[in-house]
Structure formats: C-alpha cells, structure tokens
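Appendix B, example 12.
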Amino acid sequence: MLSPSEIMVTSPDQEFLNRVIELLEMNIMDAKFNAESLTSALSMSRSAVYNKFKEYTGLSTGEFIRRFRLKRAKQLLETTDLTVKEILYMSGSNTASYFTKCFKKVYGELPKEYQASRRQEDKATKEALL
C-alpha cells in the first residue's frame, strides 16, 4: 500500500511543461528541432501548443524554445571552458550571428563578453578565498 507521501500528484499543466522540458533536453543539439517538431512530438495541434505557451509563459512556442536554448548556452558559458562556437552548436544553433544577436538581446552582452566577465568573476572569487 502507498502512503500519501509516495503519491505524486501533478496537474495536467505541470505534466505538459515537464514533457516539453524533457523533449527540449532530448533535442537541444538539433538545430532543426522547432515549434513544429515540438507540437508533433506532443501530438497536439500547433494552435493548442501555442495557446498553452502563451498562457503559462507569455511567450510563443518558438520564443520559448529559443530562450531555453539561450539559457543552456548561458549555463555552458558559465560552467565550461568550451568556446562560444562549440556552445552555440551544443545549444542547437547553427548560425553564429543569429545566436549572438539573440543572446545579446536577452542577456545584454555578447556571449564572448559574458563568458569573459564570468571568468573574471570566478578568478576574483578564487583569489579572495586564498
């Protein structure tokens, strides 16, 4: 018999978002994975998926995917020594200029600048601990 603490209750909305994140994680490096691919994988109509994204996040499906990819790129810039070019491919982009433009629009600085400033912060933190 299951105890109440062992029963996980999730709303359909949470299940939807969990499935979306799972699909995006599985396809993050595939530059061709887009809103159409996502709606197909979810077995839902494009308009139903779009409406859910607008309701839950305020973003279109395509913008949500783009932000998800940019967030992954940001994490990689913060935590690895990979080049910006390697990171843009790992986050599902195949055009450096578009990636750079989108990154700057969302985070306010170019990926290379962001990476350099984080490395400088890390260096300062390490020096302060010594």
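The chain is about 70% helix and 0% strand. Helices lie at 12-26, 35-42, 46-57, 61-79, 84-90, 96-107, 111-129.
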